[in-house]
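INFO  loader      accepted 1 record
INFO  loader      residues=250
INFO  predictor   begin
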Amino acid sequence: MIRLKNEKQIDGIRVSCRLLSAMYKELVPLVKPGVATIELDQWAQDWIKKAGGKPAFLGYGSPKNPFPAALCISINEEVIHGIPSKRRIAEGDLVSIDSGIDLGGFISDQALTIEAGKVSDEARRLNTVTRECLYRGIEAAKAGNRILQISRAIYGHARDAGYGVVHQFCGHGVGLELHEDPQVPNYAHGPNPRMTEGFVIAIEPMINLGAGDVEILDDEWTVVTADRKLSAHWEHTIAIFRDRTEILTE
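INFO  predictor   done
INFO  writer      dumping tokens
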């Protein structure tokens, strides 16, 4: 069931999203060669708690295997849900970071891919096109349009560039819970509700240098490309109004 948000709820989600964006502004300069990903996660946990929020990802999932961090940090062939560790970022890595904040019950969600040091031309192009896919999707996200118009915009731009589009994971409703209806796929498949005022959704293209196929590692979280080629990931939380669309995490 899609939970339309009222003005007061969107105000709360907006504050959470602005806080998350503020965190990223300070975090991104720290993502550089030689830094261990666990160090970035500890920094983020401390930052969120000092700001009065809770890390929305920490402890998420099954009680038997909850996600153990505030940040998903996925490097190179890792698509999403990478677990921070003692691994150190290397020169030329593509580092995707996904995070969310629970601020008094209002949830934000945002992801971006950072180029660590000097990356290859193919990595830079993949990252650029993936970010473009996100904004193509946002352009299609407006009252009166349908969800799969977002999907077609993302898929078409990625395929025109020669890239694979991940099918198994997708965007989603967000705001009062981390994952809500509707699903927002990056290819045109599945339910196709019409967007109306009060929709709050996370659009998140996951685009691969090679094929779109992925696998999940033994930790039951980390998703990697099946061909082990590079992947990039960008995400914004947006709100749909009758006369406009607002990027809450911009």
